[in-house]
Amino acid sequence: MQVKAPRGTYDIMPDEIYKWHQLEQIIRTTAETFGYAEIRTPIFEHTELFERGVGDTTDIVSKEMYTFLDRSNRSLTLRPENTASCVRAFIEHSVAGGVLPVKWYYMGPMFRYDRPQAGRYRQFHQFGVEAFGSDNPALDAEVISLVLEILANLGLQEYELHLNSVGCPECRELYRQQLISHIRPVKDKLCTDCQTRFEKNPLRVLDCKVASCQEAIAGFPNMYDYLCPGCSKHYSRVQSILTDVGIAYIHDNQLVRGLDYYTNTAFEIMIPLIGAQSAVAGGGRYNGLVKECGGPQMPGIGFAMGLERLLLAMNSQENSRTNPGQLDVFLALLDEKNETRAAHILSGLRRAGIRADRDYNHRSAKAQMKYADKMGARLVLLLGEDEIQKGVVTIRDMQTRQQSEVSNEALIAAIKAILE
Ligand code: AMP
After folding, report:
1. Angle 78-82-83 (CA atoms, 0-180°, nearest 5)?
2. Distance from the CA of 116 to the center of ligand 1, in angstroms?
3. Which of 6, 254, 266, 347 could make a disulfide contact with 206, Cβ separation 3.0–4.6 Å?
4. Domains of the chain listed by start with CATH number
5. Cβ of residue 412 lying under 6 Å from some atom of ligand 1
6. How far from the centroid of its chain's Cα atoms is residue 358's Cα?
7. 114 C-beta closer than 6 A to ligand 1
């Protein structure tokens, strides 16, 4: 029986990879212009890290992790997200003792046992940032504007920014009690998930996607009315900075993060045109997370964005991405006697940074042209007996269909001039 890729995973084939390279390049460059440096953490971690850092009441930890025992019976988990690992690295390398804030970005595969559908996979890719060491609302606004700058640089204009504040553990506790009192009388009308989680984590009921849950809790109290003076001031500041820099947002009092280490700002970015899985990025402040994971009290803020969903959005609109092809130059060998000469030319081209290849299968001249075209080569070099005798190479431009003879010495400069 043929073995296929596991459900929820997929191959990125070489003829699609240019889209990923372009996406990754734009994201990296944009993040670096905002002063973020890349961190790469392991793909697997001790399971306990995610239980603490993501929270064992979350769907991710309770239902979606790829957890396994290694040969020494340690419980390890393929990372379902990257924030917990960044926090672990921050603590493990005593980064708090250095100059703060530190601004990190990451990009790579994450793993969740999710229900696969368009825009939802079991191995998917995230780009994200974490900034540790400042509680300044200007940093919240900067993190949000980084997401929007990335979208703009990718040519994605149509998005919605949802914004909320989840307060701090003190003011949220009061709100929690109010919310529980509001929900308790209608508890029987909630979905089974909400019925089990509402006492422990009532905020999660607010963002439940089941319509009957939303009907049942209509008229629920608003977190905004319960923010303490400090949290209220922080949220106003974030809002006014965003307004000052011309960023439009929707205040969304159902955008919540149910765990205690999330504080103040929460945000999400949707691109409605990509369909049901329209959330492309989500993030917020987590002033309690570093401490929760065993480090010092340390403010932090970050977000993660899904690369598959960005690609979906880019594919669903007009854009000018073109496949740069695999090759710049294809060397057509018209006579086997010319092997040595061909080898010299090829190594010269490659050393000059020109993507070059040749025929290995003794194909006809016509078949070699076809192959060169398929590989996206702009130029074909023809090397036959005639050329060898004259000490030249014939360059054929596959775009203009023009041919010219160039001396061996002038070859690389001539090719560079055309490619540029
Ligand atoms: P989260 O870490 O759950 O806040 O997700 C952040 C972003 O990652 C989301 O807005 C999505 O764009 C993306 N994402 C999360 N889960 C998946 C998944 N299973 N497949 C593809 N993208 C995902």
Report:
1. 135
2. 12
3. 254
4. 14-168+228-316 (3.30.930.10), 329-419 (3.40.50.800)
5. no
6. 36
7. yes
